[in-house]
Amino acid sequence: MRIVITKNFIILLLLSILCFSQTSLQANSDTLTPSKPSGQLPATKIDSLLTIEIGGIKQVIEIKTDDSNKPVLLFLSGGPGSSMMKNADNFTNILKTRFTIVQWDQRDAGKTLQLNPSPVTPSVDLMGRDTYEVINFLIKELKQPKIYLLGSSWGNALGFYIVRNHPELLHAYFAANPVISQLASEKELLDTLKIHFKADSVASKELAMVNIPFKVDEDLFYLRKWLFYTEGKKFVTTDDFKKGFLEWSKTRSPAWNEVMAIDLPKTLKKVKCPVYFFVGKNDIQTSTSITKAYFEKVKAPKKDLILFEKSGHQIHKDEPENFQNAIIGILDKMNAGK
Predict the structure, then answer these.
(1) What's the rounded Cα separation, in Å, for the pair 214 and 223?
(2) Average pLDDT, stretch 81-107?
(3) What is residue 208's three-state secondary structure?
(4) Shared-domain flag, residues 267 and 244
(5) Edge-to-edge, what's the strand order for the sheet holding 303-308?
(6) Measured in whole angstroms, how far is the alpha carbon of residue 194 from the centre of its chain?
(7) Where on the phi/psi map is residue 304: left (φ > 0), alpha (ψ -120 to 50), or beta?
(8) The whole model's pTM is what?
(9) Strands (E), 256-301
């Protein structure tokens, strides 16, 4: 069953910047001729959409690989409430040559939401524990000692939860457009938008009403409305968009308010696994300067920061080839012991 893309669906998806196969891995796998050194399992091709129980509800993951012995790369999508699954081939076509690719529709997102809305209000801690369960499922089913983990935007709230609490499960963590000190980022964004729209009386009036920290859902709405407008999304001025945004806020704003409290420079000064920061030069939603400052100070076994010159807040969409090649370059260095 395919998702019907309606106008409201598109609106809800954009807010996050933001058919299910209940089967086993073996059900959709084709065993290939073994070609691995002694001690490795036979190469197994997997192209499966799985429904598994995570955190007490049914959640959906997608696994794609031509060799299940390849290292696992799990994507944590932005949001909260969005999915990377539908268009994943656009930014994983190169990565597939080196990794087993896993997409996951989180609690209250995508295919998981279609199966069952979360019975409790999602929180960073709850979804962090979901992430831990997903990783352990992958390690067990794919018989891997560790995985590679990549968080995009909001996904970094969950990614750094794992980095903080379960670094032993990770070969490395890739932080793309990361949430580092979101309160400071939102203040910086508001100042940037006020300058950008100083000649626009409507935008200036609405931006002047925004309180940071946010006091009501309208604060986040007006900030995102004019942010999206700078990206060419003219429909954000419609009543339908406002209605859709505020509906989204009813369930997502509690988790987002937790994100606003994240301040990694104060709470996570040292990590125990390699961490790599992917930063869009033109990203004004998660501040590039704040990420750079954190990168300079955080202590890690290995770390690096890659700046994407032509990217904003979604590097995987803005520069998909460079994005993938950067990950593979890091993999090669790690394999070489560098």
Answers:
(1) 10
(2) 96
(3) helix
(4) no
(5) 29-31, 44-54, 57-65, 100-105, 72-76, 147-152, 170-176, 275-280, 303-308
(6) 28
(7) beta
(8) 0.86
(9) 275-280
Residues 172 and 317 in one domain: yes
| Distance in angstroms (rounded) separating the CA atoms of residues 280 and 266 | 23
| Neighbour tally for 273: CB within 10 Å | 20
Domain end position, chosen among 260, 288, 321: 260
Tell me the residue range of the domain where 272 lies. Answer: 20-31+41-181+262-335
Domain count, the chain: 2
Are residues 230 and 218 in contact, defined by beta-carbon separation less than 8 angstroms?
no
As a whole number of angstroms, the longest Cα–Cα distance in the chain is 70
* Average predicted confidence (pLDDT) for the chain: 89
Q: How far apart are CA 49 and CA 292, in angstroms?
A: 37
- Residue 285: count other Cβ atoms within 10 Å of its Cβ: 25
Here the tokens at position 242 are 């406002």
Q: So what's the pLDDT on residue 38? A: 40
- Mean pLDDT of the 89-96 span: 97
Instruction: Find the CATH number of the domain harbouring 152.
Output: 3.40.50.1820
Phi, psi of 293 (to 5 degrees): -65, -40
Cβ–Cβ < 8 Å for 300, 170: no
